[in-house]
Automatic annotation (TrEMBL):
InterPro entries: MmgE/PrpD_sf, MmgE/PrpD_sf_1, MmgE/PrpD_sf_2, MmgE_PrpD, MmgE_PrpD_C, MmgE_PrpD_N. Coiled coil: none annotated. It comes from the Bacteria. GO terms for molecular function: lyase activity. PANTHER family: 2-METHYLCITRATE DEHYDRATASE, 2-METHYLCITRATE DEHYDRATASE-RELATED. Pfam families: MmgE_PrpD_C, MmgE_PrpD_N. Belongs to the PrpD family. This is MmgE/Prp family protein. Residues 17-254 form the MmgE/PrpD N-terminal domain. SUPFAM superfamilies: 2-methylcitrate dehydratase PrpD. Residues 280-441 form the MmgE/PrpD C-terminal domain.
Length: 495
């Protein structure tokens, strides 16, 4: 990856140093692995955005005066609404995180794709830009936000900030400014503006505000880029200033700015083993245990009626937010490792429908919840390099004891990629809810060759809900595919 050669660069403000790298990045710097990883992540994010487009948090935003009322060419995914790029970034960004089904990253302590995809799609649709340019912009956005995460985490996360938002906004700026081909001075200004617009508190996890964080920073990051493009000013040292982002958000001594630039782009962060897609539509911290439960079902042919007791042992960082033995709402079930494991043992799959309606009250699952014990794993230390491990042990009524263990499973990343069939199954399950099965297949096929799309706006027809025969567009503004209402439930969790 090409980098500017700057002898005195260490004396420059961080925003300027970052801006030089963002401006210098070129689509030709994409390795085949980076291209494939970026394309897959973008497809996955579009799928979960379509699924989330019917969620109450998005419907409320659509019904709020002043939102989506601005004229524009940008599609609100899964609806027939078109609006400005800023409002599309807000609405689609919120939808993309509404179901917590989007990809995530260990070093970021959050979700890396959702701060990028909605604003990039809006901008590319509005300005008729290419799929290849969008992919390159996505990759530099990932590089920027995760490099900043390496500088501030995990103190940043533990202090109470939501990194998907507070760090993701810098990814939004990097990606959208690159897509617009801003120069390095404009990019530095946009990054400095973003330092003042960054926001997101973990106190609001478990409520509609969590996905709103993503919509808000997607809109704010794009807003920062658009006003910087027009000559707005900001302090280029706003990130490292004594009263700037690092010191206000983390505090002196709790960050290492140099980690941003060490071995920049070699390899690209998008190629990292620490990024993973979500195969299951629930908290990522439950995924290692789900995978082990499914292994027992499929390899040992265990039936739920055979089980006498269940013991879940997970890395202790995975439990504060998922040790929920008696979930009473669909949202609570998403953050219950006990429920997720029980559902895997009962059905042999874990799907969106398992976190809707009264699925969490299924008597078969409730029987297993009553015989489940959960503990931190004694062989997985808190400061271990790998922190996404779990072991599931089943005691059967015939006396057999069966177990499966994995020491690190950050979703389905490069070391354990989802198969083509698995990727399509997830995309279809998500997108058919909003646009129908045949449109979902057509969209998926186009997105599989996204780098060959010369004008992203040509995808708009496939991203939108069809207008109902004889329907009034205004009346259909909220007429997205139905989804059950979800009660908010306070909970503390990580991706």
């Amino acid at each position: 990856m090409s980098q500017p050669q700057l002898d005195d660069e260490r004396e420059w403000p961080i925003a300027k140093r970052l801006a030089q790298r963002i401006a210098a990045f070129d689509a030709q710097d994409l390795t085949p692995r980076a291209l494939a990883a970026a394309r897959t992540a973008i497809i996955d994010t579009i799928g979960v955005t379509l699924a989330g487009s019917a969620e109450p948090c998005v419907r409320i935003l659509l019904d709020t005066p002043g939102i989506a009322d601005a004229p524009g060419k940008c599609t609100v995914l899964g609806t027939n609404v078109r609006t400005s790029a800023l409002d599309a970034a807000l609405l689609n960004g919120t939808a993309s995180h509404a179901l917590d089904y989007d990809d995530f990253s260990q070093p970021m302590g959050g979700h890396q794709s959702v701060p990028l995809v909605a604003p990039l799609l809006a901008l590319a649709e509005e300005r008729k830009l290419s799929g290849n340019a969008l992919i390159a912009a996505y990759v530099i956005g990932i590089e920027t936000e995760i490099r900043l995460a390496r500088a501030v985490n995990f103190h940043h996360y533990d202090k109470g900030w939501h990194p998907t938002a507070t760090l993701g906004i810098f990814g939004t700026v990097a990606a959208t400014s690159h897509l617009l081909k801003l120069d390095s001075e404009q990019i530095a200004t946009a990054l400095a503006i973003a330092a003042s617009l960054a926001a997101g508190l973990k106190a609001n996890f478990g409520t509609m505000v969590k996905p709103l964080h993503v919509g808000h920073i997607g809109r704010s990051g794009l807003f920062a880029v658009l006003i910087a493009e027009r000559g707005f000013t900001a302090n280029a040292a706003a990130i490292e200033h004594r009263q700037g982002f690092f010191n206000a958000f983390n505090g002196p001594g709790h960050y290492d700015a140099q980690r941003i630039f060490e071995n920049w782009g070699t390899p690209l962060e998008v190629e990292s083993e620490t990024l993973g897609l979500k195969q299951f539509p629930c908290c990522g911290s439950t995924h290692p245990a789900i995978a082990m439960a499914l292994a027992l079902v499929h390899e040992e042919h265990v039936k739920p009626e055979q089980i006498e007791s269940i013991h879940i042992q997970a890395h202790r960082r995975r439990l504060p937010h998922t040790d929920n033995p008696d979930p009473r709402t669909p949202l609570g079930a998403k953050f219950s490792v006990q429920y997720a494991v029980a559902r895997a043992l009962v059905d042999g799959v874990v799907r969106l429908e398992n976190f809707e309606g009264d699925a969490h009250l299924d008597p078969r699952v409730r029987r297993l919840l009553a015989i489940t014990r959960t503990d931190p794993h004694p062989d997985m230390p808190e400061d271990a390099e790998h922190q996404f491990g779990a072991e599931v042990t089943l005691t059967l009524r015939d006396g057999r004891v069966l177990s499966r263990r994995i020491d690190n499973l950050i979703g389905r990343g490069p070391a354990n990629p989802m198969s083509t069939d698995e990727l399509w199954e997830k995309f279809a399950d998500c997108s058919k809810r909003a646009i129908g099965s045949s449109e979902a297949l057509a969209l998926y096929e186009r997105l599989e060759a996204l780098e060959e799309v010369s004008d992203v706006s040509t995808l708009a027809r496939l991203l939108a809900k069809r207008v109902l025969p004889g329907g009034d567009v205004a009346k259909q503004k909220l007429e997205v595919s139905s989804a059950p209402e979800r009660k908010s439930e306070e909970t503390a969790w990580v991706p």
